[in-house]
Amino acid sequence: MIISKWKWPLAAALLLLGLFGAMADATAASARIKDIVDIEGVRENQLIGYGLVVGLNGTGDSLNNSPFTRQSLQSMLERLGVNTRGESMRTANVAAVMVTANLPAFATQGSRADVAVSALGDANSLQGGTLLVTPLLGADGEVYAIAQGPVAINGFRAEGNAATIVSGVPTTGRISGGGLIEREIGFALGSQRSLRLALRNPDLTTARRIALAVNDFIGVPTATPEDPGTIRLHLPRNFNGNIVDLLTDIEQLVVEIDMPAKIVIDENSGIIVMGRDVRVSTVAVAQSNLTVTIAESPTVVQPNPLSLGTTATEQRTDLSVDLRETNLGMVGETVTLQQLVDGLNALGIGPRDMIGILQAIKAAGALQAEIEVI
């Protein structure tokens, strides 16, 4: 992949394309199989829970504005034998939070996982707080982990009588190892005779190359590409080991990655990301730079002596238009988009001009790539 950042204007930059055309294409990217596929059954699961953070230094929820915090606090105290129904509660040291975590693949009972804590009410900061025991539920409604512990935050909040400083986001935090796994998700990977490999970036050519690499390494037909995103893996009859041994042997194999010709444009940050195989056919390009300058220079007008007039301000506007035209520049056959963008950037081009030129070349049918604007 080639990444180009827009930071400059445009002129007749296409004259430089002849120099860039002599540049050789970048060598094809290669990667290990383990870095470009996901193995069926080897995955995380998302967990969520609702809890209370206590011990805040007056930066918690306002109970009058957060009824769920009041109800949760009363329910917790009742379970501990303290009856607060009907009583006025004004503490600002408690905050209701949502707790999220990822249950690691093949996590066993008693192992730990990191949890993230986010304020739900109008708390100002979770600094110094401690999360009380919070059940973490899976998509099936079952409890898979319990979270508890002191919350560590990256931001801070400091305020005085007339000023407030906030750095980062003090209403979110993290508890390292704060989730204790209570339930396991069963999946007997070692007993599988067949499973699928899922490409993270589906592509027909890459899927076939992976299958060929695996079959060449094992020596018998073992992998079959089913679609652009899936390779079916079968355990050979005479293989000395189980499916885990097979995965361990093949995940280090290096394959050449192929990808479609695609251009991604981010108008907000001014970034162009393009694939290696993007090509530009023969096309002529010209661009105009229109600059409008408006300057206001009001002047003070004094009345004549003894005229009983008043001092006034006269508005004056200086307006100028600068239109700079460029001649048609010829883009030769098989010029890569990298060479085109490098040539335009060398003489200067702004992000709006860059987007317009790429889209115009695409509309003319001379750009062999898909354009995605995000």
Automatic annotation (TrEMBL):
What one GO molecular function would you report for this record? structural molecule activity
Per the UniProt entry, the signal peptide is: 1-24
Chief subcellular location equals other
Sorted alphabetically, the keyword list is: Bacterial flagellum, Cell projection, Cilium, Flagellum, Periplasm, Signal
> Which chain positions lie within coiled-coil regions?
none
Lineage: superkingdom: Bacteria
Q: Which GO terms describe its biological process?
A: bacterial-type flagellum-dependent cell motility
- Give the matching InterPro entries: Flag_FlgI (IPR001782)
- Localization terms from the record: Bacterial flagellum basal body
Function summary: Assembles around the rod to form the L-ring and probably protects the motor/basal body from shearing forces during rotation.
**Sequence similarity:** Belongs to the FlgI family.
**Summary of subunit composition and partner proteins:** The basal body constitutes a major portion of the flagellar organelle and consists of four rings (L,P,S, and M) mounted on a central rod.
Entry-linked NCBIfam families: PRK05303.1 (NF003676)
User: What protein name applies here?
Assistant: Flagellar P-ring protein
Q: Which organism is it from?
A: Devosia enhydra
The protein's gene is named flgI
